User: What shape does this take?
Amino acid sequence: YFGDLTHNGIEDTDADGLSNALEYDIAADPTYGHDSDGDGLGDEAEAYFGTDPNWWDTDNDSMPDGWETKYGFDPKRPNDRDLDSDSDGWTDGREADYGTNPLEPDSDGDGVNDSVDADPLDSGNSETASSNNTAEITLTVGDSSGSHTELYLIRVGSFVLRMPRVTQTEYLFSRTYRTPLGKAYDGYVEALGDGDDDGDYDADVTGVGI
Assistant: This one.
């Protein structure tokens, strides 16, 4: 597969979080990008970083392993969620929740910092967030069936809520996001690699106008 000259060493052909050149160095396959836990980090990359290939958040800080390695964070250090690496007023954990860049105070380059931007991922919207141009939506996902074994994520636009570890008393999880008024989003629920495929889950999106 290294004879394919259509790809170079800088690229990440299999989108597993490792460049082709690095995969060559560690004798991995740059065309194999299987991601068992759906965290954006392929199984071979998980082995390289020493993270758990069967759990999306090795250090349990609610930031996916793939997201942490993408931005140079340590996916095995649990105390970095509360840092604000770009000093924009949003913690790194908040940036992970919104899908913004934790190393750039203005992710969309519209001149307004993420924490006060009505839509921090839309360069065409440079309004400052207020009650007149934003609303709140709440994503909920979980497994309230008797087994409490299902693991899912719910995605609405760039907002993603993954279920953390489920217990017999904690099995429904919610997070609230600020969103611009009048914007439509696609959404879906996706099963995470939990070894259980009976299809029991709870998911909901609530808020003004929802």
